[in-house]
Each structure stands twice: as C-alpha cells, then as structure tokens.
Amino acid sequence: MNPTRVLVTGSAGQVGVDLVDTLGGSTPPGGDEDFLPDGRRVESDEFAVLGLSRHDLDITDRDALTRAVSASRPDVIVNLAAYTQVDRAETEREACFNVNATATESLSLAAKEVGAHLITISTDYVFDGEKGDGYVEDDITNPLNVYGASKRAGELACSEADTIVRTSWVMGVRGKNVIHVIAQRATSGETVRFVDDQMGTATMASDLARALVTFIRVRPGGVWHVANTGATTWCDIATFVGASLGRDDEFVTAIATVDLDPAPLATRPRRSDLVTQKWADGGWRALPEWRDGITRLLSGRTANSELRS
C-alpha cells in the first residue's frame, strides 16, 4: 500500500517535532511507546511526511501556501503553526489573527482544492471559564482574550469536513514551556509562585502527537477535545514537579491571579478544563493522567539534556 502523505505545518514546534517522530514510527522524548489509543502501532513506512517550519513556509502568505499544498498534494494536512504568545497578542491583534484565523482559512481552502483532510489545533481559551465545570465540544464559546478570539475565528473559517482539535496547556520535552522553568528552579534551589485559581487540563506534546495519528488515520471531521486526564492548576503542577525533583512544600507559594506582578495583559478563563468524553466515545484509549505525563516529561528532559551534553 502507498503511504499516507502528511503535510505538517509548524513542524519545528514542540508538538511538531513529536508528531514527525511519531509518524516515522519512533517514540519522541517523554513519550509512552505503549500509549496506542487506537490499538495500532505506527509502521515505519505507513506515512510519508513533509514537515514545514515557519522558516520553510510563511502560512500567512496565501499564494506560497497554496503552491506548497498543490505541489505536495498531501492526503492529510496537520496545521500546528500558530501564534501562541497570549499576552503579546493583546498588542499584536492583526499578527495573531493573520496566523490563527486567516491562514487557517487558507489551509482549509487549499486542502479542499487538492482533496486533502485538514486537522488544525485550537484551544481551551475559546471559552470564558464561567461554566463552573469542564467544557464539552458543544458548549458555547466566548473568548476573553485576543488569542482565544483568533483561534475561535480559525475554527469558524474551517469547513464541516475539517477536524478541529482543541487542546490546552501543551508541554513537551523539546521547546520552551513552563515545565522547564519550574524544573530549573527546583534543581537550582530557588522557589516559585504560581496561581491556584485557574483550572485547566495539561497536555503532553508526545501524547497529543500520538492522538493526532489516530485522527490522521480516521479523519473524523468536527470539533474534538484532546488533553491528558484530570483537571489541575499551575500551582498543583509546580508542586508535583518540585516534589518529583526532591523539593519540599516550601518550593511553591500559591497566589491568586490578581496578585501576579506584573499583571498579565490577557485575561485567562478561571476554569477551562476540557472534557474528552467524545474522544472516549470514539472507542479510543484516554490520554494518560497528567502526573504520569509530567513524570515522563521530566525523565525525557533529563535524558535529552544528557544527549545534548
């Protein structure tokens, strides 16, 4: 059989590098080789992958994007390119919308032109956090910040055939994320302060990458919530990381969002944890519990550092 042709935008990001590894049949750093949500391992020749970083393709250039899709003629496009600077977006609205909304529309149109299936990533920040418990796919959206609004606009720009994957608090071994900051401070003897009044769902890049393989195979269409199991706060996450690295309870000080100094430019939802029941109803194995994921991330982080040295 011919391999499935997959075009990945944003392939140099923390999810992108893990997805490219996973599609090639390798387990990325911090990944779980036994996490097979659809019960199938990835064969080394199952996918033919074209990974494009932002240096390879400016997705806001519609003509260049259309040429790239027309030339490669993929079966599936996975759009991981995104403007993710939540606070900076408040002062760079146009740039944020160009990447997260306009370019997503361009990809949807280009995919339809060549008969490809588009899978694109959205966020929990499309919600305002006022529901009181976890969000399901059909809940009303009401973003509180520019980033969330841009991602919602990107969702609306997709066709009904496209697959929209909402995820949250993504963290991987490779790439910049808050786990590396927490771990560095834990091992250097410093302390940290984290909010305990914002609740969400953490997502390991390696687990999300493996979930995306399932979507590449089945191409379901519609909106899906994908995140690791269990709601948490950044304070809880920092406390768990500290304990895992031998720090005591004094490592983390819990603070309220209003006590952040400097105050963030963007308003975050108070509770935006994603319910993944629809994913489970699809017959697929739930993503591992968030503590399991962070344990693997910390182990992979150490191994990755040793390899670089």
Polypeptide structure, described:
By secondary structure, this protein is an alpha/beta fold. It has a single domain, classed as NAD(P)-binding Rossmann-like Domain (Rossmann fold, 3-Layer(aba) Sandwich), CATH 3.40.50. It is 37% helix and 16% strand. It has nine helices and twelve strands. A six-stranded parallel β-sheet has the order 2-1-3-4-5-10, sandwiched between helices. A two-stranded parallel sheet has the order 6-9. Strands 7-12 form a two-stranded parallel ribbon. Strand 1 (4-9), helix 1 (14-23) and strand 2 (47-52) form a beta-alpha-beta unit. Helix 2 packs parallel to helix 3 (93-114) and helix 3 runs parallel beside helix 4.
Sequence-ordered SSE layout with sheet pairings:
Elements: E1 4-9, H1 14-23, E2 47-52, H2 62-72, E3 76-79, H3 93-114, E4 117-123, H4 146-157, E5 163-167, E6 170-171, H5 178-187, E7 192-195, E8 199-201, E9 203-204, H6 205-218, E10 222-225, E11 231-233, H7 234-244, E12 252-255, H8 277-281, H9 290-308
Parallel strand pairs: 1-2, 1-3, 3-4, 4-5, 5-10, 6-9, 7-12
Antiparallel strand pairs: 8-11
Helix pairs in contact: 1-6, 2-3, 3-4, 5-7, 7-9
Keywords:
309 residues; Rossmann fold; six-stranded parallel beta sheet; globular
Which structural category fits the helices and strands? Answer: alpha/beta
CATH architecture descriptor: 3-Layer(aba) Sandwich
Overall CATH class: Alpha Beta
The count of helical stretches stands at 9
The portion of residues assigned to helices is 25-40%
**Which value, in Å, is the CA radius of gyration?**
19 Å
Strand residue content: 15-25%
Q: Largest sheet, order of strands side by side?
A: 2-1-3-4-5-10
Domains counted in the coordinates: how many?
1
**Average pLDDT over all residues:** 96
Low-confidence blocks of residues = none
Q: State the fourth-level CATH superfamily.
A: NAD(P)-binding Rossmann-like Domain
Number of strands: 12
CATH topology: Rossmann fold
Termini separation: 41 Å
Order of helices and strands: EHEHEHEHEEHEEEHEEHEHH
Shape: globular
User: What kind of sheet is the major sheet?
Assistant: 6 strands, parallel
